[in-house]
Design brief:
This protein has helices at about 5-20, 60-65, 120-125, 175-185, 195-200, 220-235, 255-265, 285-290, 290-310, 325-335, 365-375, and strands spanning about 35, 40, 50, 55, 70, 75-80, 85-90, 95-100, 105, 110, 115-120, 130-135, 140-145, 150-155, 155-160, 170-175, 190, 210-215, 240, 265-270, 280, 285, 315, 340, 345, 360. It is α/β, with parallel strands linked by helices and about 375 residues long. Strands 14, 17, 18, 19, 20, 25 and 26 form a seven-stranded mixed sheet that branches. Helix 4 (about 175-185) runs parallel beside helix 6 and helix 9 (about 290-310) packs across helix 10. The longest helix is centred in the last third of the chain and has 18 residues, at about 290-310.
Amino acid sequence: MKKIPVISIALIITISLIVTAVAPSVSAAVSPKIYIDDKPVWLSPKPLLFTNTTFVPLIPFFEKLGGVAYLDSSNHIITVYYENYILKFDTKKGYVLEQKSGRRIKLTFPSYSGRTYVPLRAVSEFIDIMVQWIGSDKSIRLHPPIKNVTVLNYQKLMPNHELVKHSGEVDVISTEAFESHVKYLKEHGYSSLNLEQLKDFVNGKNYYNKSVLLTFDGGYPSSFSYAYPILKKYGLKGVIFVETSAIGRPGYLTWEQLKTMADSGVFEIGSITHNMYRANGASYKILSTRPAEIIKDLEVSKVLIKALVERDAYAFAYPQGIYNDAIKTYVQEAGFKMAFTTKNGSIKQGDDLMALKRNNIYRWMDLEYFKNLLQKHD
């Protein structure tokens, strides 16, 4: 019987260990499902599982994210351009470098079937992608930072059977339609931001869930009777902009109702002027009033909200969406930190906090239109 050389035995053991380590990884049974923003991602070759760590093929993974990768085989470096990142993967020295910031982390680069793999969680979190493991279906959900926040603006709500009396008012929405909007947002993973969170987003803070801001103009009783309980039911939040001189009059909210809404945490209160929401003859008051009087009017609205609702009003909505550079300056001088227009579109990081876009919602917009509006801005 021939003796097997010691080196051959060592080689057999090494190959055996490699096969044992790799074979389970390529099994379809253990290859985890990967989603980016709830959309399934199919990678070729498949992800591998090493000691409870998921590895993905480097170049195909970044291509699915929308990046571009280049391999320089002479120095074992793979360069990836993704969003604002320039990533240098040094597969020989075992690290990835973010060229702009100088940040780097050590990485393991296993190779299989001629492909270079990287650990999914470590690489994703390095580029600020949130990683979520869903044990129930053994899937991995990746959530890149959102790029937009959509602001949805409502005015009056009323039940369907009362709408016939208001056929000419396109900004009156049925409570049933409004609830279908809120239900859709809840069921499809949207978060409703508050004003501070929106300000932080504009100033550069990253959020990972699809997000909206819900606003209501005018201070009408339907905000308390209908919007408030519906938002509370689904766990979402809103902002109501009020003309403070109208509060307590017939057809408007009372200060007690506003305080109840604010105390609940469901609503924040902002200003839409003290007494400049309406037209003044052929012109709007905010366009035909002297600057000092405009500033005084805005300051009065802030003082009243602070005194009677016991909340700081630091957000403003331009009445009827009317503004210009001068009016923006008056709003800032009155102490407001952010202001909303009625220009359609979504809000992005770096936008002007004093000219934030909003999308008015009208009664002719059905649920499909509403869905398309959101998807257009996501």
